[in-house]
User: What shape does this take?
Amino acid sequence: MTTATQPNEVTASVDAWLSAFGDALAANDPARAAALFTEDGFWRDLVAFTWNLKTLEGRAEISDMLTATLARVQPTGWNITGGLEPAEADGVTEAWIDFETAAGRGHGHLRLRGGQAWTLLTTLYELKGYEEPKGPARPKGAEHGVNRGRTSWQEKREHEAEELGFTEQPYVLIVGGGQAGIGLAARLRQLSVPTIVVDKRARPGDQWRSRYKSLCLHDPVWYDHMPYLKFPDNWPVFSPKDKIADWLESYTKIMELNYWGNTEAKSASYNEATGEWTVNVERDGQAMVLRPKQLVLATGMSGKPNLPSFPGMDVFRGDQHHSSAHPGPDAYKGKRCVVIGSNNSAFDICGALWEAGADVTMVQRSSTHIARSDSLMEIGLKPLYSEEAVAGGITTEMADLIFASIPYRIMHLFQIPQYEQMRERDKDFYDRLEKAGFDHDWGDDGSGLFMKYLRRGSGYYIDVGAADLVANGDVKLARGQVDHLTEDAVVLADGTELPADLVVYATGYNSMNGWAADLISRQVADTVGKCWGLGSDTTKDPGPWEGEQRNMWKPTQQEALWFHGGNLHQSRHYSLYLALQLKARQAGIPTPVYGLQEVHHRS
Amino acid sequence: MTTATQPNEVTASVDAWLSAFGDALAANDPARAAALFTEDGFWRDLVAFTWNLKTLEGRAEISDMLTATLARVQPTGWNITGGLEPAEADGVTEAWIDFETAAGRGHGHLRLRGGQAWTLLTTLYELKGYEEPKGPARPKGAEHGVNRGRTSWQEKREHEAEELGFTEQPYVLIVGGGQAGIGLAARLRQLSVPTIVVDKRARPGDQWRSRYKSLCLHDPVWYDHMPYLKFPDNWPVFSPKDKIADWLESYTKIMELNYWGNTEAKSASYNEATGEWTVNVERDGQAMVLRPKQLVLATGMSGKPNLPSFPGMDVFRGDQHHSSAHPGPDAYKGKRCVVIGSNNSAFDICGALWEAGADVTMVQRSSTHIARSDSLMEIGLKPLYSEEAVAGGITTEMADLIFASIPYRIMHLFQIPQYEQMRERDKDFYDRLEKAGFDHDWGDDGSGLFMKYLRRGSGYYIDVGAADLVANGDVKLARGQVDHLTEDAVVLADGTELPADLVVYATGYNSMNGWAADLISRQVADTVGKCWGLGSDTTKDPGPWEGEQRNMWKPTQQEALWFHGGNLHQSRHYSLYLALQLKARQAGIPTPVYGLQEVHHRS
Assistant: This one.
């Protein structure tokens, strides 16, 4: 890293660019504005210009977007964010910027190369007239003065619980009360959007409590904060499942969410004429109808189990279930367990079964990428999400924006060197895995775990210890495709017979639009198409290139239907933009969507 | 405010003083160290030197303390805190400092005048070898690796709940599960001190839920944070009672406290020989014995009702109760209500009764000080506890230390000008009160509300609106002493008869050592003597001068008996020093108490 330029020159170069950019926009001159980018420049916009999540690649796309949006957006006030000096390294100048539009206020991030914008990120953080009541604008709380019609906070909460969903309809219904659903609900409450969250389980956090006992977050605490309420300083690096469950339950209460537990969404249909959903739910066994204007599916990007159908599953006499239904190892001590799959769930379950004294075989059907947890933290996350990052002044919110500022098209280029480092650092580990016969990969282009996650949401394991069991043979490894099951065994294509008292199908999950098929209709599911993935044309992420993750946190081809989810980082960050999109619609602010995504795949 | 000196000169003057001070201490020369203070200089020590909370006034007291403690304490490393430049204004230089002792590490605050120390605050924040697991030292959480004896977080918590109080005894028993008790318990958990909190009510927060519905915190949010977990940014300025109750319940869970609800401490006795308490408790109606080494009474400095005994209370036919037992106004619409008293509770209750449509009379028996909430926030709290203070870099922890750095002996001198400002700002209000016949005072020396709170814990009202009801006659005002009650009236000494369906005795609370009398014995209560107050020789705070608040958060004349409480600010801040004192004893670190307070008053 070399710093060739003096700080005030760096700042001056950013000021000059922002001034020229602001002038071009004010002059309604898209071509001039686009010419301020490098030939291969990117502009990623989160809601501020496009009412969409959209990455524009190259000058032509930038110019087209501006041509379509400038007159309405009326962007002004392009400035360096106060207190944050631009910095230059290796010929790239980075700056935090602020701006505003006719509708709201935005934060941004800029990278200049040779005086031109290489990457620009623009994000909306609040709508004018609908600023969040927090900080200096926080609510007064208990009303001072005397008032004969006073109702207390508690009475207001009780009143709301009695009315919402009965005499008053929620504007938004969120199906799924995991961390994604409640984080979004917290943001919507801050924006005064009447919202109900429904979940089939009884209490917030039950999504975690109901899983196998060794389950924990594989991402560290700095990556996992919920909106508004950060984990305290004594929170463990890796949350055990019951602890995060209790946190989510407290969060739901503290954020005053309308959370309906024991409530299953059974079916839904949209009336285009009235712009209203009819959603049949069963609450505590009682049928009810809700009529929200907007429907958000937050049932989890890894929520819809992909259960394979192998010949003989009907004759197998032991226990068999998808990994998501695995009750934990307690009943399987001394039993022969076959786990089909070799990704995160498979390793977690193999490890727990082995710990409980089961005889365990993992069936690897295709190659898997493994990154060791400590290496991932040290190399992958430390610069943005770590104790050191926090101490260095990088707040969670800044880290989220820095991450968001890297265009998907070139993100793998930032990732590849990290995985080259990991390969070096953990050479012994990978050698042992290979020796054990494990089929390991680094992703189609060597870009490793996070790109696999973004492209296909599968194909990897963050090693928290179980990989060693495979490397040293404690967990037996079988490779190949499953041909069929017998009464008491799994038989592979090569004839290998694996005697089994238990078969766990750690065979992953289907696209989230499967939820829409179940809840609404196959037709609507096909209309919106596949969720997740970038169109990178790598394994399980077919092209064409999409530029953004399919259908996530942004308008879909089905009016008033939204998908929300991802890991805790994504749920936290993108819930802001989804909440603003929903609020704008509720407030009647025009939200013409620029570049609504096309559908190239059904699932 | 004039700044006469350049920043680097200021820093140099602090460095010079610290260097001379450090040298004198290292040379074991108490007289030389004391001579570095002004003649009227103060040194306030919170646990670091004295294993006590102690203010030393003048060179002789400072020299005496050092003579007694230096050899053991071995203080070193006196430095300006990194990142915090000393500042000079009006001839006083202020600096944040760090130091360490043989046993631990400390933060301090220094004020220099003419190159000599005018005030020095030294506080211990951690014990060597017993640092808290937080920040970079936070627990790992879920254990990586594979381990056949693995117990999950949930199993460990369940195991602890089964063992503690049964097969294992807590080191500390905290009686009282309000904000003070649970804040202390959170700190003790961080320090791995086995602790149980007992409270007679079912759930954490019930202390608030059970009170009248209009109750809210009269202090603003910035003043009210609990240890470790700050209120989120959207928390209201003044917490409604049920909202703070829910927060405390979540807090108890998040901090993993061993909280026994529905548990009443019935009696306790101390065995000097074994150094152990025998505490009889009733948990869910079941008698149990606990044997802690340390007993903390956190039942509230305003916890023990002072119910007067007026002739005729036995013949009065209406409802009558102490303010702490007042159920709220709902049953008293259209009824004649007499509230005896004119402080916080009296005003709150009068306001709520009037709102509910009752006919309300307040009986003022002695003068009261009233400060308007908004003026108190603007003039009294804003520099330390406000959105502005936070934005200016003054963390809650810094604000607490700044507040603690002002010696009680001269604190009123800092307060008087604030109340002079308030008198001016709210002149109309005070004129109207006077015109209505209200007997208003500003404290014996004009130092207002906070000094009254510290000296006597009574005699004031933070006006959140009800004072206007008295000023405008909506709530009727009667002045004088109560002579007796009849079947249906309160009769004052001047013969005034106040017809009443309800009498509320808003007559305040007795000293916390009354709790010790109830739980342990009158003898122990007398041994420890009066709690709270400074010995200021002002109304209800008899001399002699004590220098610190009597019996609060520090050793008492009864070994292993401690009192904890105060407002949210005090509970938060002083719980640290109480927790460190308890941890040191549990860890077997010698804790010779310097200057154990004498007892001058029994109640």
Observations:
- The mean pLDDT of chain A is 95.
